Amino acid sequence: METVLIVDDEEDIVELIQYNMVVQGYTVLTALSGEHGISLSTSHVPDLIILDLMLPGIGGLDVAKYLRQKEKTKNIPILMLTAKTSDTDIITGLESGATDYMCKPFGIDVLMARVRAILRRHVPEGAKAKEDSDDLENGLVINRNRYQVKVNGTPVNLTLTEFQLLSFLASKKGWVFSRNQIVDAIHGTDYAVTDRSIDVVISGLRKKLKPKAHVIETVRGVGYRYKE
Description:
- By secondary structure, this protein is of the alpha/beta class.
- It has two domains: 3-121, Response regulator (Rossmann fold, 3-Layer(aba) Sandwich), CATH 3.40.50; 133-226, Orthogonal Bundle (Arc Repressor Mutant, subunit A), CATH 1.10.10.
- Helix content is 41%, strand content 21%.
- The protein has eight helices and twelve strands.
- α2 (34-44) packs parallel to α3 and α6 packs across α8.
- The longest helix has 15 residues, at 195-209.
C-alpha cells in the first residue's frame, strides 16, 4: 500500500487523518513543520503529501516550491489542506505545484476520496510502463511517463497541474473543452476550483511553451483546445 506524508502543525488534525489512513491500509508519516516535511519527503519519497499552508518555520507554499525543484521529489502529488479559502489562495497553491487543494474544515470521507483519486492517477517513479512520448508539433514533445515536456529539445519546467492540463488537451487534438471539463479531467469531479484558476494556469503554460504557445487556442465563450 502507498505511503502518505501528512505535514500539519495541528496535532488533532494529524491524528484524525493518520487514524483513518492506517485503518485503510496506508503507511503514514507525519511532520509538524515545513522543515521536517522536506526532510521526510527527501528521505522516504512518499506517494502523496498532504500539506498545510500555515506552518511554523517554512510555510507550505515554500515547501511545495522546494519539492517541485528537486529531481527526487518533483513528481510527488501534493494535496494542500488549509484554512485559506479565497480564489487567490487556491490559484497561488496550484501555481506553487499543488495537485489538489482542499479547505478546512473538511469531511474525512471527502478527504479520503480525494486521496484515492490522486493515487489512482499518479504513476509512481520507477513504475514499469512503456515509453509514452508524443512529438506533437515540430519540436513540442510530451513524455507522459517521465512528466517531461521539451520544446525544440529544451526541457520546460512545468508544475504538475500545467503538465496534466497540457497532456489532457494534447490527447484530444482539435476538441474544445470548457473550463469545468478541464478541471474534471485533471482533478476529479469534486475538485473545488474556479474558472479563473484554469485561465491563470493556461496563461502560465503559454508563457513557458514559447515559441509553441499558439498550440493552445482559446475558443471564445467556450473554453480551450489543442490546435490540430
